[in-house]
Amino acid sequence: LRIVNWVKFFNGRQVPDEILESLYCNLCWLDGRIEWHLMANHLFANAKALVFGGLFIDGLSANRILRHGLEIVDQQIDEQILQDGGHFERSPMYHSIILEDILDLIAVSAAYGLPEVNRHVEKWSVVASKMLGWLEALTHPDGCIAHFNDVAQHHAPSASQLVKYAADLGISSASAGQKQGQLKELSSTGFIRVKTERLDVMMNVG
Length: 206
Known about the structure:
- This protein has 7 helices and 3 strands.
- It has helices spanning 2-10, 17-31, 40-56, 60-80, 92-112, 115-137, 159-168, and strands spanning 183-186, 191-195, 200-204.
């Protein structure tokens, strides 16, 4: 998280040498201690930081770290994001956190414009679009996410914030929005959302 926040803050600014050296030390330390034992959102955050830091710092070792981060990101997207667009932990909160991570990766790729990174963006954009559709289905009319599994409000960006962020990057939801009387089945993650004139229900059906 520190690596990503520093890169966001110093992008386009003059970086003091001691900060750059510290950032590089943090990046190398992380690259040697990837949280494979924790997996899931922890591992994805590690890989995101490797991509951010690898783009920000010049040099052969940074390029190697960048490639390592890209490899883990793509591997984990395939494993963690299911066919219906939901995150495999089946928590709307963690889903929102991972979606923000993917949008951040798309944004930082656009900022640096490296061909070896840009070739990943199309895949990330398609995944982000599906994830937005999933999140819409598990967001209440008041904008709060459904309390399925490990969830707390305000620990992740809201659905409306993520929709706006995605729109700024040219990405829209794979779902055009749920109409009255429509039933939406999220079969990979095991949720159903049904809306009628009198009823709006989200169900965990396994």
